[in-house]
Amino acid sequence: MNDDARALAETRDYLVPDDAVQNSEQIAAHEAPCIPNYLQETYWWAYLHPKSFLFFERAWVVNIILWGNMNRLTAAVLDELQLHAQSRVLQVACVYGDFSNRLATRLKQSQSHLDLVDVASIQLRNAEKKLGQHDNVSFHHQDSNDLSFSNAGFDETVIFFLLHEQPAEARRKTISEAIRVTRPGGKVIFVDYHGPRRSNPLRYVMQPILAWLEPFAMDLWREELAAFLPPDIEPEQVSSTFYCGGLYQKVILKL
Question: What pTM did the predictor assign?
């Protein structure tokens, strides 16, 4: 077996949710979701291949990918949290680097709980290893397009750099599900790419990179994130803050 064939075989092994993930005490027991086609076809190299962690699971690598803005964007989420004692926060999709650790640490201060969802079992296994020191985190093998949580079960929901990786239909479903599981009076916090100002030199660096590696991200350059929200959301419910010359955005949806 040559190296390419061996790598593909390893990838297939990781695409199948294994007993270790399904039987974990911290992962909700239900039928395992299928890996979406867009994830297998476009992002297998970043999220599904076992060797991807050797490169991406380093805080400094994530910071370089975000042009030195990882700490700033993480702080933007943490500063936005409005927690009461024993709040429940949902993070939709795992994140490379220290984001989830910092989020769990912040929640622990108010005896609050973090529920972490991902469609890829390999990502959940990695997250369990990273967050093993936290006793306020639960892991759930679910598709962001079809969450199994009840309505209004979370005080706040965080979606950090996921939407740009999804085609428009999946993006809308993810947003709708995040809204459904967040209680009235709570909020959904989005952080993602945004079309930068024409005067921003990173615009001309990032455009070909994203078009090549992350083609769905260009949707968020062409349209505001609010364009993907359900039609019943009122403009006054949405507020946006932009970073790095408009390359990144934080969008707050108040329910």
Answer: 0.88
